[in-house]
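hey so u asked for the seq, here:
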Amino acid sequence: MTLESLKPEIEANVPGCRLEIIPNPSPSAQHSLLMDAEHALAIATFLRDAPHLRFDYCSNVTGIDWPASALAPGKAKETGDAMEEDVESAEAPDTGHLEVVYHLYSMELKHGPVILRMRTQDRATHVHLPSLISVWRSVDFQEREVFDLFGVLFDGHPDLRRILMWDEFTDFPMRRDYVEPDDYEYEPTAHGKVLLKTMQHHGGEA
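ran it, structure tokens below
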């Protein structure tokens, strides 16, 4: 199965959807399919339910930060069990964007992966994407991780709350412009670089 053959089949079964094949020049050659957010649920449902496809398992959800200043190869930040190659689609907004990547397999028919991508409009105010939890239950905690570390808001997720950072935390540690705090008062046994930052924060006193 190739994306070149899968793309027109999806387009025929999900009228109006917009798809783009994103090539991956790395040795893995795991090319991906960028889908528009408006039709993402319909596309995911088709891939899961079509008898000859039956992509019934999403193994991994990965977040990628594409700020305008970091669209050169090798500069994306990502999270997830499977690290993403730095693969950029044809045109990126000047403001940058966030991407979410889903790795699909068919446990029933023993094939895959098919890799899907969705992209936010920007990195500031338009960061909503549809949750795919109603199609693949396995994305639950992984979408929460992408929300927590990147700030993507997954519409339709039933329990979208932080999973690694505390509730009062206001930043997104996996974005490229994230600045680490220099106040480590919560660290009970500060040492090494943490101790040095703590001392600098308090004027030389630990």
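Residues 3-13 form the longest helix (11 residues). The chain has four helices and eight strands.
lmk if thats what u needed
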